[in-house]
Give the backbone structure.
Amino acid sequence: MLDFLVSELLANVFLSCNSISDVLNLASTCHRLQQVYKSSRRLQFLSAAAEAEFGPLEDASQVVTQNTSQPAHITRHVPLSLAYLTQLIAVGRVAKRWEETYPFKKWKDNYEDRRLLTDSERYIFRRALYRLWLYSKAFHNAAHSRHTRLQRPVILERATLLHTWTTMELSEIADVRNVIRDVLNGSICPSNGTIQRKFRKRFPDTNYQLLFNMHLNYPPPPPPPSFSSVVSPLQNNKYYAKYKPTAFHEPGCEGWGDDISHYYVVEDMLKLDPGQILWLKDNALSKCQVEGYVKGLGEWFDNNGETFGQTLEFVLEQRGEDVGGFAEAVGDGEMGVARDEV
């Protein structure tokens, strides 16, 4: 039957696919469709599917192509190629992972209101994440040390990027940033209080007292496992083993300090881009591994908090917006990615 259909009609079927896997699966169904897929329009088929699945690709492309030769706020246009599309898809897959995390963090406390995002909200979420990623890639690097963050020209350069987006679009980015902060707080660098709470939840009947490294001289811990050879108990059940006290592991050592010191730790960690944070969530099973990863980024990273929040306040004040009211509206769901219906 397909042999009698014109190629243009079959090409429209490919262009209507909503994901890369749909395109590839369709192409593998028969020789006729494989022939159409391998034509000169293959890149068009894949880019259309990528736009539907990971779009907006225009914002994703700004992340992929960002470099020091051009200011971050200038839109860059790159001819589409298979290698370039592969990079866009890699960034898009990270966005899709965060997209699935959003409802669990957004409605963490009022979970009775938790729901799936609509297609338009998913699109908005990915766009906001790409823009936050662009900011991080442009301004959270070795070229922006803690000694330059308050210099007027540097502040204006950061603000120029944020001024390219509307206040509502900035609220969407702030909403995504709150979700990323929550993941950092709970999974990657939890505070001593969080460790205590999770330990009691997993072992409610134990009398064991956690030992937190706060101005105490404990015996030196065993050598930390490397990324290439992680201890098998954590691999088998990292969420349980992370909080289980053994002769070689003290759960209290997984804490990143009390509320005050922990706040500054998270401010530093927010400089990591969404891809790096997701990688740490999946692969860094202990505090020492996270510390090793961060140390490998260079001296610029330590004691040099993220600057997005500061720049956002600067831009909002320039626009005459109420900064406190803006933050409250994002937290209450009046602004942001998933807005409450009026």
Notes: Confidence is low (pLDDT under 50) at residues 215-236. The first helix runs from residue 7 to 15.
